[in-house]
Sequence to fold (464 residues):
Amino acid sequence: MKQILIIDDDEKLGELLTQYLSRYEMQVHVAMTPSRGFEMIKKLKPDLLILDVMLPEKDGFEVCREIRAKSSIYGQLPILMLTAHAEVTDRIVGLELGADDYLPKPFEPRELVARIHNILRRTGDDSTLRDIKPINGIEVDTSRREVKLDGNVLDLTTMEYELLILFMQYPNKTFTRDELMNRLRGIDAELFSRAVDTLVSRLRHKLGDTSKTPRFIKTVWGRGYTFIGEQI
Amino acid sequence: MKQILIIDDDEKLGELLTQYLSRYEMQVHVAMTPSRGFEMIKKLKPDLLILDVMLPEKDGFEVCREIRAKSSIYGQLPILMLTAHAEVTDRIVGLELGADDYLPKPFEPRELVARIHNILRRTGDDSTLRDIKPINGIEVDTSRREVKLDGNVLDLTTMEYELLILFMQYPNKTFTRDELMNRLRGIDAELFSRAVDTLVSRLRHKLGDTSKTPRFIKTVWGRGYTFIGEQI
DNA sequence: CGTCGATGATAAGTATTTGTTTCATCTAAG
DNA sequence: CTTAGATGAAACAAATACTTATCATCGACG
Fold:
């Protein structure tokens, strides 16, 4: 379970994200002020910091700067900045404050999740989202978003790619359709449709995995799907 | 398949949820009274209890309290309370009755599903069952729904898997066919046939357990079946 | 706006699982 | 040893779940 710390004085947002991110094996903690934030970083050692720009005491830029300055204390804590307006983003990037990413408000929760995943993947944080090991002829370079099957580059859509990544992170784990939907879309969606099946079908097709004895994605009847890790 | 027990005297709601939740790999059982509820908890060992506040005999708060008090009997059964009005929710939370969540009536079925998922995710492994100790060469990883026999992954169907899990949770316990069916198929499953025998036979076959001196599943003549624990 | 690609929904077709029947075989008890 | 009842397993039937083609929808992009 990833620990996410949010420094933001908007209580509502905190609650929202707490609930929302819990679906993604993330536990959210909220600090309303920077000083409380620093405290909690030391205590909690979160895996990611989400930092609002508009804060009491001092603004988010300043907080970010401090954390980077005292890297001996705070380590390479990945930081995602929430900016009030898109224009400011240039400033952040330009000033090289050391944030790992930024996201202009208002944002789609789904977008946030995607960013978080990206950051955690980039920064090489182990516990959940490590680099993806080549399995059975599939190599994934997450930094380039490139997938190779037996040496040939595959052209995958966003969903297909995310699905593959998810599968490869947990080889041999059986996912229910529900789980897959939640992880990929972030909604406790009504699942009357075969959306997941369709997606799997498309990915299988691109992986050339259409035979009856699948090489990659196995159907677990009455349950879901499994990405095959070792050989059976 | 998750087993959900509802204690609620509103017949309509029970039916509705039975139908609705069945789409989400949940099997719903309804107890109209608390006393019947307690009975069914023991018999059924549900994965989640949905508890209405307005009940005959005693109210839902009381039921919740009792269950938590007798945790040795009922374990850490997750409880979702249905409250008639939003205002009461404060009371529930404030009193720390031990419910895991609450939901004010009337509610959207979809919202209920989301809550259920959240609770199940929070309170334990998503795949419902506690850890299962390796026995006699069989290892089960419930979070991955993976079964290994002497190191080799087994390909089990839903029923076979559920049966194995059930057996391994109670090694050396002799189950009657009735018990097995109740646990696997729901409480009022009436079978006019030898479905259990067939199921056992199939599982035995996949376990390579067909000899006359079984390694895993022993037939207790005139009674039922026993999963053999450590020593023979 | 109109096109294109990606994704979601639907439904017909197919596959697998599960329940039932049946019969050979087995067990316990006299 | 015999028998009535119980069990194992094969074969078939019914129920259930999955696949995929096709169409609809949505959003990005010019």
About this structure: The longest helix of chain A spans residues 109-122. Residues 194, 197-198, 200-202, 204-205, 219, 221-222 of chain A lie near DNA strand D (CB under 10 Å from a C1').
